[in-house]
Amino acid sequence: MAIKSEIKLLGTAASPFVNRVQFVLNLKSIEYEFIEENLACKSELLLTSNPIHKKIPVLFHANMPPICESLIIIEYLDEIKPDVHRILPSDPVERANNRFWANYIDNKFYPLYEELRLTLGREGKEAIKIRIMEGSVLLEEAFMKFSNGKAYFGGDDVGYLDVVLGCFLAWTKFVEKNNEFKVFDEVRTPRLAEWTKHMWSHEVVKDVIPGNEPIMNFYMMLQKYRPPRAI
Ligand SMILES: N[C@@H](CCC(=O)N[C@@H](CS)C(=O)NCC(=O)O)C(=O)O
User: What superkingdom heads the lineage (predicted)?
Assistant: First the structure.
């Protein structure tokens, strides 16, 4: 299938969900056009292509209807280019387990970062930090199971869960710095601490992971439009 330049990605550099899609496009050597979205003033393109959620990323493939939701997009890419760097395992049970943990990461683990930002007061923040660290231990256990002693969830190279969790690396660093704790550390989560280093230096990841400036700009936008609250 001719894919070159038929793919367009609507997003912004600081969005982990957009970065997730970029990782997979890179892994599969799919060329794409990046369309910058301004979430402070959403474009007509975003509102019409993702009218339900009004969120990025949105993927456009030739003249087909837009595809929304990052996990759906990366699975779509895996399906249209299965011959290059498969990210999901071929075994249905393993695939189901991968999806289970992706669901945990997106719906339980990462939302705690946002909850930490939104919570005012030392006590409340400390309680959320504990929940994040408990989550990191669960992820360490999952990593041990999936990686089989190798460097990645996917084994010898980046797989589905590396993409799903790895897209949050820059935000993890930011959250750690802002809140003076470690999400993944050498003592509590030694394998994930090691994995973090592999991910940061991985070819397809390192050019996508946003630097401090886009992260800080995005953070300031969140603070403005969705400010913290006292609980
Ligand atoms: N479940 C969605 C989450 C996407 C998401 O939260 N995107 C954020 C940017 S990081 C967004 O577009 N936010 C706009 C809004 O909340 O109005 C996915 O996986 O694609």
Answer: Eukaryota
